[in-house]
Design goal:
The protein has 188 residues and is α/β, with parallel strands linked by helices. The protein has four helices and 19 strands. The protein is 21% helix and 28% strand. The strands form four sheets. It has a seven-stranded mixed β-sheet with strand order 2-5-8-13-16-18-19, with no helix packed on it.
């Protein structure tokens, strides 16, 4: 007897997978519907808006997201307590995205676990991903992009417009494209 690994299991493991597989298409459609409902919900009832996302994302406590919010699947996203995201957050969560406690995102932040093959023939049919971890007490400025496989340590500040391509150690201020540590943060 052979064990066949599904495209869904390949995706979660960070292996090349076919995103066109019906189970994955259905899961993305459900996430898109939840995001659509969240984005169009009455802005004077934030508790109703967040309840829509609570059925999709994993909350470890209080979270507040401004619209617009977009994700691929939602179930791969874990938000720590006291999370805040300004407008236009996009999380491409083909692999796990773990965000710590007391984290703030500026507007237009993009978190992408998804990547594609360099070879154009392979790129026609497969994609893959790598998990992203963002520690506690992190602030990502506006227009920050975090790329597949990156870990950002606790208490970091990532400057606006940065493209984070490599791990950032705890207690760092990092900026640029590619993002580089420019100084350490002294903690009290």
């Amino acid at each position: 007897m052979t064990n066949t690994i599904t495209e869904f299991e390949k995706m979660l493991a960070g292996l090349p997978y076919k995103a066109s597989e019906p189970e994955l298409v259905k899961a993305r459609s459900l996430a898109k519907l939840a995001c659509h409902q969240f984005n169009l919900a009455d802005p004077t009832t934030p508790h109703v808006r967040i309840k829509i996302l609570a059925e999709l994302l994993k909350f470890k406590g209080k979270a507040y997201l401004e619209p617009m919010f977009y994700c691929d699947y939602g179930f791969n996203i874990e938000l720590g307590d006291n999370f805040y995201a300004n407008h236009n957050l996009t999380i491409l969560d083909v692999c796990k995205v773990t965000i710590g406690n007391n984290v703030m995102f500026g507007p237009n932040v993009m978190i992408s676990t998804a990547t594609h093959p360099i070879d154009p023939i392979e790129r026609r049919s497969t994609e893959s991903g790598s998990p992203i971890t963002i520690g506690n007490d992190v602030w990502l400025g506006g227009n920050v992009s975090v790329l597949p496989g990156v870990s950002i340590g606790d208490r970091c500040v990532i400057g606006a417009g940065s493209v984070v391509t490599k791990n950032i150690p705890a207690n760092s201020v990092a900026v640029g494209n590619p993002c580089k540590v420019i100084r350490s943060i002294e903690t009290k």
